Amino acid sequence: MTDRAPQPVDRQLPTEESRDLLALVREIAQREIRPRAAEEEDSGRFPREVFTLLSEAGLLGLPYDDSFGGGEQPYEVYLQVLEELAAARLTVGLGVSVHSLACHGLAGYGSKEQQSAHLPAMLGGGLLGAYCLSEPAAGSDAASLTTKAVRDGDEWVITGTKAWITHGGVADFYTVLARTGAPGPKGITAFLVPGDVEGLTAAVPEKKMGMKGSPTAQLHFDGVRVPDSRRIGEEGQGFTIALAALDAGRLGIAACAVGVAQAALDEAVTYALDRKQFGHPIADFQGLRFMLADMATKIEAGRALYLAAARLRDAGKPFSRQAAMAKLFCTDAAMSVTTDAVQILGGYGYTADFPVERLMREAKVLQIVEGTNQIQRMVIARHLAGPETR
């Protein structure tokens, strides 16, 4: 075996505290996540105990206010934590990103009373969240959602079906977007729905190409009643809340994509140094060396792009265009890098004996979730040229 295995990513972090935080994340990833990732993904096992551990370690609420149990870390740091977790197992990295997305509405738009009542448990009390926007007939066109919430005194009655819900059926709470008014984006309102409320059921999880350990399921709301005190923001403000959450969530997906790509590159480099053909390690052959160089360059470029967007967010500046660019570039790069990693390992790369085939399958979904990459191109183009005139 070679002694030139890839080293941990050399990260530029703003404080000593953040450096200690990343060291803790790497330790947890190496000890608790990576060793069981392949086996548990193959069996489709959801690692709820890992999320409990991450909550106990203060890693489920990193970008939120410490007065409610958050870590009060800048996005620049939080996203690098996601990258490390996703490199160990995407089910975990993406799961933390989705949980953060589910907390975003209440943290950003909830009243002080709501935040005091719910955020401590959501951010550091062992709870796990999910985000409910998509529906069977409302994916990219999310503003056409039809799940309804009808006012009944001091309560709302929610009826409809949500689709493609990460943590569907296992989450403790759901941020739900439902129609309370006229068609279109202005008729949508956000609600915080408990996972055990009467009338809420989950379908059998989808059978997926990758991320088999992360349950993705439809949720059925059959007259689910929630008090008005669980309405987030004003009536009709839901779509604005949803878009703000997605801007932040796209950065989470970008960071996860870079983590998956980094893991694939590390496997490819190690294999290329160990594998000998024609009397030499295959890493000596120029064609393969150029592949590794291109893979590494895409990863570094993606990391720089998502961090630049994160720093804009941390500075309170607009970052929607940069978030779309980061999500687009990083997820396309992850698909390219993981595919090349399989090619470098040759026949072995196509087997489950090595993790690169799993990483390639997992990378694909990142081009789809939280706005397909075609939608990201539309978002970027609108920032450049304005809305379409058709």
Q: Care to describe what's here?
A:
This protein has 10 helices and 10 strands. With about 400 residues, the chain is α+β, with helices and mostly antiparallel strands. Helix 6 packs antiparallel against helix 9. The longest helix is centred in the middle third of the chain and has 37 residues, at about 240-275. The chain is globular.
Task: Give the helices and strands, then pairings.
Layout lengths: L15 H28 L4 H9 L18 H14 L1 H20 L2 H13 L4 E4 L15 E5 L2 E12 L6 E7 L8 E7 L5 E3 L13 E12 L3 E2 L5 H37 L1 E2 L2 E2 L4 H29 L5 H26 L10 H11 L6 H13 L5
Helix pairs in contact: 1-3, 3-4, 3-6, 4-5, 4-6, 6-7, 6-8, 6-9, 7-8, 8-9, 8-10
Essential attributes:
four-stranded mixed sheet, globular, about 50% helix, four-stranded antiparallel sheet, single chain, about 400 residues, alpha+beta
